[in-house]
Amino acid sequence: MSFTKLKRLGVGAAAALGATAMTIMPAFADAPKIDTGDTAWMLTSSALVLMMTIPGLALFYGGMVRKKNVLATMAQSFGATCIITVLWMIIGYSIAFTTNPDSQLNQFIGSFDQFLLGKMTLTSVNGLAGTIPESVYMFFQMTFAIITPALIAGAIADRMKFSAFMWFMSLWLLLVYCPIAHWVWGGGWLGSMGALDYAGGSVVHLNAGTAALVACLVLGKRTGYGTENMAPHNLVLSVIGASLLWVGWFGFNAGSAVTSNVNAGMAAAATQIATAAASLAWMFAEWIITRKPSVLGMISGAVAGLVAITPASGFVDPVGALLIGIAAGVVCYLSAVWMKKLFGYDDSLDAWGVHGVGGALGALLTGVFANSAINSLGKGWLIDGNPGQMLIQVYDVVGVFVYCAIATFILLKIIDMVVGLRVSREVEVEGLDINLHGETVHG
């Protein structure tokens, strides 16, 4: 073949390739732009939040129960992680984080578009998080869905059947957590109203704490409550668990920026400040009242601070975080210790006193300290002179509390009629580990 013919073929091929490129360029232009930095951060955050449940929460709760129930308590965290993962994949993610704008129900529940994640691809994104793959966003939100129901276990420790617990986790996820997550984060009525909940003060903590309060009231007190020694069997495990929760919480709060930017940085700083302040506040309150600063009090105060700063972490400056932490340490201490004694309910591991009260307090104080200089979406009463935000935050707290309390009560009563909620007195006295799981902790 002559040089002239080769030249003509080359020119023709170049023209053809150019035409093809012009044809497909719009497709590339319309494709979502995935940011690798954001994706890396959100994968890290997802792993951190998952660590909060297993091993964090499992160790935290496991160390605070009696030795005969430690495996049963840890099994609840592990079992919840597994069943919620599967249910979130099947339908939970879809009804929480997809929308159907043409339906009036969109204010209360999402669509079934992502049933079995059928429309998820390698490059698909969710409109709520446009710079990361939808698979990563789904996974991140899955870890929130896992820890929220698992927190309830703290109130029903030592006395609930494992079968009933697994049924409760499943139904509560789909009928309580997913709708409320949609209300606030998925395009529902509370989010549309302007409720501020950066990482889950109402969606996660008030929600779980309310369910915990209802559950412990429905189940009743532990056998021997008030007369027998029910002190934690191994606080070393609880300290390790609390430390893992503290570290994992940076994925929880800073990860809720859904991007690797300045908002994530400020949320991380606010989280650290509030947690330390709350631990000190609880410690000093206990020191003044009982004359001894307990290790259990220090770690409980830290968790209270983590809870209270969760809704505010992306909206407040460091001073706001400090004040929220101090308030959480004192208020949650009084709630966990004195409110429980005053009303006589058996919230075994203070799930309501820390998560319910702390979540509500944090949600309300977000309306006070939200600073538009930190996040233009948040204008609080004290900083920006926006008292209307306080009313919206009250709607958020009351709406979540009322719906969760009623729905939880109904679910527990139905499960009780079908499989029974509580183990027998004999099983409770001997221990759940050996009777429910056929195993014991030695040594």
Task: Please provide a written account of the structure.
- The chain is globular.
- The N and C termini lie far apart (87 Å).
- The longest helix is centred in the C-terminal third of the chain and has 31 residues, at 388-418.
- The protein has helices at 3-30, 36-64, 70-97, 134-151, 162-185, 189-193, 201-219, 235-253, 262-290, 295-309, 318-343, 351-369, 381-384, 388-418, 425-430, 432-437.
- Residues 1-29 have low confidence and may be disordered.
- The protein is mainly alpha-helical and 443 residues long.
The name of the CATH topology is: Ammonium transporter fold
Strand content: under 5%
**Biggest sheet features:** none
Oligomer: single chain
The percentage helix is 55-70%
Query: How far apart are the first and last residues' alpha carbons, in Å?
Result: 87 Å
Total domain modules? 1
What structural class do helix, strand and pairing data support? Answer: mainly alpha
The number of helices is: 16
CATH class term:
Mainly Alpha
How would you describe the shape? Answer: globular
- Any idea what the radius of gyration is? 24 Å
Give the ordered list of helices and strands.
HHHHHHHHHHHHHHHH
pLDDT averaged residue by residue: 93
Could you state the CATH homologous superfamily? Answer: Ammonium transporter AmtB like domains
Unreliable stretches covering 5 or more consecutive residues: 1-29
Named CATH architecture:
Orthogonal Bundle
Number of strands: 0
